[in-house]
Structure formats: structure tokens, C-alpha cells
Design brief:
The protein has 127 residues and is mostly helical. It is 63% helix and 11% strand. β2 and β3 form a beta hairpin.
Amino acid sequence: MNADCAKCGRLPESEFVELAVEVFAMLADATRVRIIMALRDGGELSVNHLADIVDKSPAAVSQHLAKMRLARIVATRQDGTRIFYRLANEHAQQLVADAIFQAEHSLGGTPHHHRQADDSRTALNEP
């Protein structure tokens, strides 16, 4: 009955739990989270462009990107001497979005992402 769940790693005894912890550890850095957000919004970007967006030196951003590449969070494309980075898949941006939403909950009150949902429901119910 749960055979398909075991394969996808959703059970507590999954072999992927430790790997998931490593992913969380990789994302436990504000610069890396900002890089993911920049790549989500900008698509494919160079190190220098990312450095401008996250307000860090190109050398620092390059080191973060190297770690993220090893973790298969980002992928690259080379164009001449320039390397462009993009998110390898949609999962890292979803983890970051969910973490931001959870952070909004820590402030108390109705989080911004719930207000948007309430506004759209209200708009749909208006005559």
C-alpha cells in the first residue's frame, strides 16, 4: 500500500532524510537564499550580475555557487568565457518560498501570503 511512498522518500525511515538535512544545511545561509531568489526572478545570471543583486563580492558569490552546484541546486551554461547560472529545478525555489512563508507566520497576525489569498477569494465572490 505504501510501496510508492517508500520510493519517493516520504516515510520517516526514508534513506533520503539525511540528504534532506544536507539540503536544509546548504540553504541555511542568507546569501544562498538570496541567490536562489535572484535566479528565480532573473532566470539565468552571471556571477557578476548575481553579486550586484545580493550585494556581495563576485568572489564570495562564486564560492557559494560552487557549493550550490555540487549540491545540484544550480546548473551552469558557458558562453565564451562567461558562465551563467540557473536553478537546476523548481524544488529549491519552492523550499525558499515555503521558508519565507513560514517566517512570515513567526511575526504574528495574518501573514502577507494569506492576505493575498483572502483578497483573491473576496474578489472571486464579488458580484
